[in-house]
Amino acid sequence: MTIPPNDLSQQEIAASQESAEDIRKLLFRYLTHWKWFVISFVILAASGFGYVSTLTPQYRIAASILVKDHQKGDNFSILEELELFYNVKTVENEIEILRSYTLLEEVVDELNLQVRYETDNGWRTTEAYGNLPVKIEIITSNDELFSRPFTLRFDEEYISFDEKTYPRDALVTESFGTLRITTAANDSLPIRQDIHHPYTVTFMPKESLIESLHSSLQVTLVKNTTIINLSILSPVPQRGKDILNQLIVAYNKAAIADKNNMAGLTLKFIDERLMYVGEDLRQAEQNVEEYKTQQGITNISAESSLFLQNIQSNDAELSRVRIQLDVLQQIEQYVLSSESSMAPATLGLSDPTLISLITSLIEAEAERTRLLSTTQPANLRVRAIDDQITTLKGKLIDNILVLRRSLETTQQNLRAESRRMETLKNSIPQKERELVDITRQQEIINQLYIYLLSKREEMAITYAATVADSRIVDAARSTSSPVKPNKKMILMMFGLVGLLLPVGALWLIDCFNTTLSSKEELENRLKAPVVGEISWIEQSNKIAFFDQIKSRQAEQFRTLRTNIEYMRAGGGVKVILVTSGISHEGKSFLSANIGAAYAAIGRKTIMLGFDLRKPGLDSILAIDNKVGLSNYLAGQSTLDQIVYRMEQSDNLQIITCGHLAPNPQELLSGDKLTQLFDHLKETYDCIIIDTSPVGLISDALILDRFADVTLYVVRQNYTPKDQIKYINELYATKRLNNLGVVVNGIKDKQWNGYSYGYGSYKYYAKYYDSSD
Does residue 128 belong to any structural domain of this protein? Predict the structure, then answer.
């Protein structure tokens, strides 16, 4: 069936109102405990301030460098053309080099970062860096040196280290290792350092320090540029600046050293070749001179001269190819060698792939050598370098084979051309032919010698003018304020937790609370009507109508009295039975106050203490329980003997339970009980029966046949929730006449967001204030 639009709109409005009501109830539920929210917030906020004050502030230090793009023209293009081993740099490779452990280790050693100095300023320690009057260097060490801090104090002429005295410039050798302690110049060393404020010296293992720097160092590439940004966090800004600046210095120094190493090897190779070629050239020139002298030849014909030039040019090319093949042979031997040896020169080879692979192999072997100085070959990092070296060597062998095939093809072509010229040479006269042969050898050697001299000069210029392929764009600089910790965020989190903790605590209390605590729980579970809600009274023996007639509790009993009358509308109420599920829920307190409420309107009322096992009505009304119902039902006393009159009201009387009987149910089963109620109904306008808990004893079920209305008392934060199921069962089966529930002992100022009677308690207090 389709719901009409108007009805649908009304349903949506009703659902919205119900949701708003639920939210309001939830808010009132938590706002009643506002003090806990304030206390929790204040404690957590104070804890947040304390926590933040213990954190060490971290500053961000940043620097940037430009890696030169050699594909674009610049002032160094001429020099770059002279570099036979030149290889275009890849920016991504430079990023990894900047983050390499080798450079970081050099930074640690150069700045002596393994040694930390701290001073105690009372509530926290502060790291001291730069302009220190002392310097400690680690010569040798063991694990003990890194396991604990050491104290450093100054005296007039001595230094106290680890509670031992040493001269100012001393070599300290103890169980933890050997240290060199040197002081600054005498005029910069404090004459008398305060002995109570020493330095605390902490030594850090190099490997862990390098690992920490590696993880904290950020190296990024600026988009669409070759600019690299470097950044690091440091509690001491100056130390962070020194680390980045020194890293850039180490990076440039390593690049220059790599270039100089390659240039030096090439110069050495050329010098060796020049020595042999120079000797051959002198011998060839001598042979030409001797032949011309013997044969009396001063010149050769133009045809022979042109032919000689062609032969010389072909032979020169053949010599260059031969040199390149020799260089390839040396490189191949270097690659195939199982032991590390000096890297070969790359004279005459300009293949960028080959040069790049050789450079990578040299760097990898250098890194392996460095690692083996401190670790074993089975180390994971060493094994990773071994795998990298194996891969590079495989690629080099493949590249060498390709280059060798190309050079061998060129060599074959040049040799074929040489054979062809040898055939043509026979057409030249014999003397000229012989002179061509001798002159040819001399020219070949001469061109090779000139070629080597030219390359040597080029390499010497390159070696002298070697510069780094990067320049500093911005030197290391620090932020003016710390970037960590974020104090505002931390304080906000602590404050939020301070507000959420009470919410969580209240939620957990609700989850584990097995007693009836809110009106909403009662309404959701209970099927019987609630006829009254009575707030908590500090002294349970107080009668509201006698002691606090203008109190809110008195008004609540008036409301309960009215609701009881409506429960038997038209028939009138004569007998009211008050019971509960368990003890201490306040049924005797309610019985006394209900009786006082009826007496206050002029009805002749009597209260019966039928809790024959654990009476409570007599103690509330301060009456001596000598004789009572048990005595009357047992035939030991008459009715006149057990009735007590209340001094506070002429309309209120009481019969206590009397002596505790061993057989209460037998007493309640006799005819005397019926005779008692028949007489009381004729004599009194209202009868209040205070009986034992129905959830424990069946006395209330026996007495209920005389009741017009049954009041079942539950108590907030005391009555188990499981009792609601039993009340529903009694209500459904009608085992108790006209059952109504009274909620007693409500301590909350608002019963789940709802006020009592006219309004909240503060309005009750104003309304009934005796001063008005």
Answer: no
> What would the pLDDT profile of 520-557 be if each residue is shown by its tens digit?
788 888 999 999 998 887 665 567 766 556 678 888 88
**What are the CA-CA distances from residue 411 to residues 76, 217, 233, 602 (Å)?**
35, 52, 60, 138
Arithmetic mean of pLDDT, 109-128: 82
The residues near 54 (Cβ < 8 Å, ≥ 6 apart) are 124
Q: How confident is the model at residue 244 (pLDDT cuts 50, 70, 90)?
A: very high
| Nearest-5° Cα angle at 189, 188 to 192 | 135
Cα–Cα dist 751/532, whole Å? 12
Query: Mean pLDDT over residues 281-288, rounded?
Result: 73
More confident residue, 712 or 279: 712
In the chain, helix, strand, coil percent, each to 5? Answer: 55, 15, 30
698 contacts 664 by C-beta, under 8 angstroms: no
- Phi then psi dihedrals of residue 295, to 5 deg: -95, -10
Could you tell me the pLDDT band of residue 305, with boundaries at 50, 70 and 90?
A: low
- Residues shown for the chain: 772
Is 233 domain-assigned? Answer: no
Q: Which helix (H) or strand (E) holds 608?
A: strand 605-610
- Whole-number pLDDT of residue 253: 83
C-alpha pair distances (Å), 697 with each of 383, 691, 694, 715:
84, 10, 5, 19
Residues 6 or more apart whose Cβ sits within 8 Å of residue 729: none
Does residue 419 fall inside a structural domain? no
As a whole number of angstroms, the distance between CA 126 and CA 137 comes to: 21
Sheet containing 134-141: order of strands: 134-141, 177-183, 170-174
**Which CATH number fits the domain that encloses residue 655?**
3.40.50.300
Domain, as residue range, for 621: 528-759
Q: Is the pLDDT reported for residue 192 higher than 50?
A: no
pLDDT reported for residue 728: 92
284: amino acid identity, one letter: A
- In this structure, what token pair is assigned to residue 6? 């108007």
Q: What domain count does the chain have?
A: 1
Beta bridge pairs of residue 221: 228
58's torsion region: left (phi>0), alpha (psi -120 to 50) or beta? beta
Average pLDDT, the chain: 78
CB 183 within 8 A of CB 133: yes
Average pLDDT over residues 237-251: 90
pLDDT at residue 5 is higher than 70 = no
Number of H helices, E strands in the chain: 24, 21
For residue 610, being part of any structural domain is answered with yes
The answer to whether 482 touches 91, Cβ cutoff 8 Å, is no
Q: Give the mean model confidence (pLDDT) for residues 359-371.
A: 78
Distance separating alpha carbons of residues 301 and 255, to the nearest angstrom: 55
